[in-house]
Amino acid sequence: MIGVLVSGEGSNLQALLDDGLPVAAVASSRAGVRALERAAGAEIPARAFELGEHPSRETRDTAMAAWLREHGVDLVVCAGYMHLLTPAFLDCFPQRIVNVHPSLLPAFPGAHAVQDALAAGVPVTGVTVHVVDEGLDTGPVLEQQPVEVEPRATLEQRIHAAEHALLPKVVRELVAASGWSLPAPGRRGRYGNTVPERPAVGAARVVRGAGLRPAGTDDGGWRRCAR
């Protein structure tokens, strides 16, 4: 089952829910955010793990990982999660963390990818779903979606639309590879919501050979969830 890490609005979480994916629990680094409301609306267990309520980041991450495990989480999806994860969390999910990033990695890693792409004057940027490793947005790429920069006024909106299409697609493929039964897009999801057909946003680029190992294999040094 999927655990989703969030910190704010939760639009990528909503995209996963709308696709009918088996989200078992949602953990947030902040209380009172829209993402937690989205989880509650879907009747999914959700909880905030704020740093101020724990003696250290390590103890917070230990508690968060244990809570996710209690809810049967095997695959973690970072969907706008803004805190770095410590080994206390990462070692609980070796090779089982993915992240969505708003650029065509390895170009423009980090927290300001859209602004960096605009400043660089590139004609095309995009979205990447990648495996999380010890670096900042350096893990193996699972799939990418290019997005034209112009018109600049709508770039962030189009980046978000690409994220909302690509992240559920890749996660659905990972879940299916794990042998779980899933509803097809356009049918009823796990919580009774109607799963819409994915909008066409252009041709995605798949990087062959990248992927997740089964849980329990060598962890390869997981250290970071960049977004």
Write up what this structure looks like:
With 227 residues, the chain is an alpha/beta fold. It has one domain: Rossmann fold (3-Layer(aba) Sandwich), CATH 3.40.50.170. 29% of the residues lie in helices and 18% in strands. It is built from 6 helices and 8 strands. It has an 8-stranded mixed beta sheet. Helix 2 links the parallel strand 2 and strand 3. The radius of gyration is 17 Å and the shape is globular. 42% of the residues are buried. The C terminus is likely disordered.
What labels describe this entry?
227 residues, alpha/beta, Rossmann fold, eight-stranded mixed sheet, 6 helices, 29% helix
Short recap of the structure:
With 227 residues, the protein is α/β, with parallel strands linked by helices. The protein has helices at 11-18, 34-41, 57-70, 87-90, 113-120, 155-177, and strands at 2-6, 23-28, 46-48, 75-78, 97-101, 124-131, 141-148, 205-206. α1 (11-18) packs across α6 (155-177).
Number of strands: 8
Distance between the termini: 21 Å
Mean pLDDT score, rounded?
A: 83
- Listing every helix as H and every strand as E from the N terminus to the C terminus, the arrangement reads EHEHEHEHEHEEHE
| Number of separate structural domains | 1
Main sheet specs: 8 strands, mixed
From the spread of the alpha carbons, the general shape counts as globular
Tell me the structural class. alpha/beta
**What is the CATH C-level name?**
Alpha Beta
Question: What is the C-alpha radius of gyration, as a whole number of Å?
Answer: 17 Å
Order of strands, widest sheet: 3-2-1-4-5-6-7-8
CATH architecture: 3-Layer(aba) Sandwich
CATH superfamily, by name, is: Formyl transferase, N-terminal domain
| Percent of residues in β-strands | 15-25%
Low-pLDDT stretches:
186-211, 213-227
Classify the helix fraction into a percent range: 25-40%
Number of helices, counting only DSSP H or I runs of 4 residues or more: 6
Q: CATH fold name, please?
A: Rossmann fold
